[in-house]
Design brief:
The protein is an alpha/beta fold. Helices cover 33% and strands 27% of the residues. Strand 4 and strand 5 form a beta hairpin. Helix 6 packs parallel to helix 7. The relative contact order is 0.11.
Length: 347
């Protein structure tokens, strides 16, 4: 009988060594497939039996403190893993399917903090980012779909702010993605009464300078985030919108008064992750190439701030005379310069 504990460790180590962001355990009628998300693409790994799948999922659920006996409801959990002297935070999610439970594990290396300069493919957005995060108060938003690198951007901004200014940083997350001694980090726990709304109220009484809310999910959280920004705090959070302008529309849909947005919203950063060409491979990198590691994956930014933001807040439409670099134009520029492959993007 295969050692499940050893096999589970090998799967995580393989994912870490190939810089995978997720491991997928996909149940099928007669077997199961293990896949790795590497540079945004799913790469097939090995095929395992349903019996091995069941034992692997039970092992991971046990270590992550999840209910092993519950297979009919979705569950979430978290655990940590040590590999090559590095702590990897693992986020687990299970859902029941018609064949068996499916498990996805997201990997968050705890020591891989980047600088703002390392985040962006181009230098010009970095200058705008530095200008935005120099604000003493207001609301900054990072938008994009799942897997677009919003969390990495948030942590990079927070670490830059803490190291440069020494201001008190408090985060409210679900769950805490990367543990950092520089911040006070609070994890949402609905069973203990720590919702985003209640947690944010508590943070406001804890003398913060900078507040990071993992995600603005509903009207109440949006109102509290804007209120915190109105009272002199710098609030940084994320929204799931396609572009920067969409964040303004979403906040208005949440019932935030336009006047409050004009007073607090300092900027919106929309982003996408792209895979750039590797100079050590003659042409496009193989998916398992480890020459540049995480440096192969960088962000394209669309930053709405200053006069274009003011115009949009007053008119809810873009001013042709005061254009800003959109995701579309940034991607086009990256393709024209040969940094990324055009076939990967439908523009």
């Amino acid at each position: 009988m295969e050692d499940i504990e050893k096999k589970s460790a090998n799967l995580i180590m393989k994912a870490s060594d190939t810089h995978a962001s997720d491991i997928h355990f996909v149940p099928r009628r007669n077997d199961a497939l293990i896949q790795y998300r590497i540079n945004q693409s799913l790469v097939d790994g090995e095929t395992i039996s349903l019996r091995v799948l069941e034992r692997l999922i039970s092992h991971f659920k046990f270590v992550a403190g999840m209910d092993i006996g519950e297979r009919r409801k979705p569950q979430n959990g978290a655990m940590e893993f040590q590999h090559n002297g590095m702590t990897i935070s693992l986020r687990l999610s299970t859902v029941p399917t018609i064949f068996h439970e499916s498990l996805v594990i997201r990997l968050h290396p705890q020591t891989s903090f980047l600088t703002l300069e390392q985040l962006s493919l181009f230098a010009s957005p970095v200058q705008k980012l530095h200008k935005l995060i120099s604000k003493k108060s207001g609301l900054l938003l990072v938008t994009g779909p799942t897997g677009s690198g919003k969390t990495t951007t948030l942590y990079t901004i927070l670490q830059t702010l803490k190291l440069s200014s020494g201001r008190q940083v408090i985060t409210l997350e679900d769950p805490v993605e990367k543990k950092n001694d520089l911040f006070l980090q609070i994890e949402m726990n609905e069973k203990a009464g720590i919702t985003f709304a209640e947690g944010l109220r508590a943070i406001l009484r804890h003398d913060p300078d900078i507040i990071m809310v993992g995600e603005i999910r509903d009207e109440e959280t949006a109102r509290l985030a804007v209120r915190a920004a109105l009272t002199g705090h710098l609030v940084i959070s994320t929204l799931h919108t396609r572009n920067a302008a969409g964040a303004v529309i979403r906040l208005l849909e949440f019932g935030i008064p336009l006047l409050d947005l004009k007073e607090t919203l300092e900027g919106v950063m929309a982003q996408r992750l792209v895979v750039r060409y590797c100079p050590l491979c003659h042409g496009r990198c193989h998916r398992f190439c480890t020459n540049l590691g995480k440096r192969k994956q960088v962000a394209i930014f669309e930053i709405l701030m200053g006069q274009p933001l003011d115009y949009y807040l007053h008119n809810q439409q873009q001013d042709e005379k005061q254009t800003y670099s959109t995701l579309h134009s940034e991607l086009r520029k990256a393709i024209a310069l040969g940094f990324i492959c055009e076939t990967e993007w439908k523009i």
